[in-house]
Amino acid sequence: MHVYRYEENPLITPEDVPPYHEGFEVIGTFNAGVTKFRDEIILLLRVAERPVSHDENIVQAPVFNPDTGLVEIYEFRKDDPRYDFSDPRVIQNASTGQFAYLTSLSYLRIARSKDGRHFTVEDKPFVYPSNKLEVFGIEDPRITLIDDTYYIYFSAVSPNGVGEAMVSTKDFQQVTHHGMIFAPENKDVLIFPEKINGKYYALHRPVPKSNGAPEIWIAESDNLLYWGNHQFLLGLREDKWDSGRIGGGAVPIKTDRGWLELYHGASKDNRYCMGAVLLDLHDPTKVIARSEQPILEPEADYETNGFFGNVVFSCGAIVEGDMVKMYYGVADTSMACAELRLSEILNSLTYY
Amino acid sequence: MHVYRYEENPLITPEDVPPYHEGFEVIGTFNAGVTKFRDEIILLLRVAERPVSHDENIVQAPVFNPDTGLVEIYEFRKDDPRYDFSDPRVIQNASTGQFAYLTSLSYLRIARSKDGRHFTVEDKPFVYPSNKLEVFGIEDPRITLIDDTYYIYFSAVSPNGVGEAMVSTKDFQQVTHHGMIFAPENKDVLIFPEKINGKYYALHRPVPKSNGAPEIWIAESDNLLYWGNHQFLLGLREDKWDSGRIGGGAVPIKTDRGWLELYHGASKDNRYCMGAVLLDLHDPTKVIARSEQPILEPEADYETNGFFGNVVFSCGAIVEGDMVKMYYGVADTSMACAELRLSEILNSLTYY
Predict the structure, then answer these.
(1) Matching InterPro entries, A to Z (chains A, B) (predicted)?
(2) What per-residue confidence (pLDDT) applies to B212?
(3) Which terminal residue of chain B, N or C, has fewer Cβ atoms less than 10 Å from its own Cβ?
(4) CATH T-level topology, domain B4-351
(5) Do A217 and A201 form a contact (C-beta atoms < 8 A)?
(6) Residues of A near B (CB-CB distance < 8 A)?
(7) What pTM was computed for the model?
């Protein structure tokens, strides 16, 4: 696989983006949704901010208060035996293994570019937590353009779990909220850009507790707001790069040979790669072909090192002819882009 | 609370029902969906069958094969360290704590009665596992009558998780399948019997893994098949009878004071009781009132002892004037019924 990483990588880093919250620092500008709007490429960045540390023995958790619209900061001593602080992203409940708080608050911010390499980041959030299902933040947006409307959907995180919420816009200025479209635990939703046999389809990634694994499902809808006929689509593979967890990545790409989904897979030790799966053009519940090897793995320094290293994680790509410009978050820290050939990806798959 | 348990309780026991599978025994006839059809009360029983044991050192797991339509039996030695056999209902993966197999296979069978106390159980299954999302069985049905159609929905259990599937019937003979309406992990769905402000509503009970608890959510729909606008509705209460897990029970009952939901709550040590919550008549996402104490707790011998004791678990009730005939599964074994006064339940609630 020929992968051309931009010389400008990483394209956007936390240092490029001033914090929105006073007394906070930006620790991540990553996992951006991607689309074209007028003559620009838009990256809808996930911006993660955390309170600046004032005591190394204290871990702080920012929490949005939907009644006041303000962010409150909870503090935890690192020697508090009720919690486990070993994962820098979360404060875990030591007895249940579930997370109790996040160490940063994420929201969505627009970056614009004419050449796809140099971006200008807007000063203010474009989508910000707005209700009690988003008090721990909103994360990992994807953007599907249908007719003249951009549907933007993202993980909504709260003490009640992680689900997927949706908003829409026509102009990247006015936003309409549509509530939570997939209940917890679910993320990595990807809405197909057109109806197939009269129905909308979406990939989604539930994380069940009692049994089952973080794997990819598909659902259908007639209005993009209400979803049903859930079917299991794609599972983990033991002893492969995608043995730990998988989830959809970029918005499905329509090709002659089927719907191409660029998805992420992580090994059991949390190394995140990108791979591809091909779904039937007329029935996307059917898997036609799949990557044996990743199409992109964390190799560059900015991919292996960062807040949470060894992660490449795409939430969207721009396709121009045979060229796939895959934008992707690196190390839960920054944004990068790599170009791949669509034909080469399709030819690399193992067909069933 | 005045609770009148029928003298005939338990109304239906495993001894009353011959097994459908050769070489199997019926171990549960419980958690039945309830409705009136013509001049009869119908209990749609969850019937649990397991292979008759031939070796006390072996635990058997029945699994439906959707390709052959037959049930296959997997065998596990009780000294296999990869598994934990301490819960009689499941074979747990010792390392993950998730279940790997169930020890019985459940399906749905009709019982009919003219007086609500004496039931005749049909010879054959009415709804039986039919696809790969149901290979471990189907469980805990509820029935909502809307216009002339009975919507029957139930837990569908497979290695991919536990979700909620739906079928419908007009005559309790012909069945139409509608697929999975809530993706894993979810169960205890309750569809309201009429539209409210132009939308259908359903309670559901996701079980998220990374954070959150088994609590009650509400969703809306315009066609009963596709669901969205998920909202968190009702949570656990520390140090109360419903501190461990809660889920909807009977189909919501329309009253002058609001929608009355009879729900189950379990303590952290798995004692299952029934309580009640009242939702706004015109906006069921609003909680008006809730039981401080259970309206029914496991006290009778048939409720405290059985395959999984200390469980009362209702999936439906018949309301006649001020009388609530609450049918309920007992000890994951049999069916029982108790009569309560609707007015007394409503007056017992704590209003917010």
Answers:
(1) Glyco_hydro_beta-prop_sf, Mannoside_phosphorylase
(2) 98
(3) C
(4) Tachylectin-2; Chain A (2.115.10)
(5) no
(6) 98-100, 132-133, 158-163, 178-186, 204, 206-212, 215, 217, 219-223, 225-232, 235
(7) 0.98
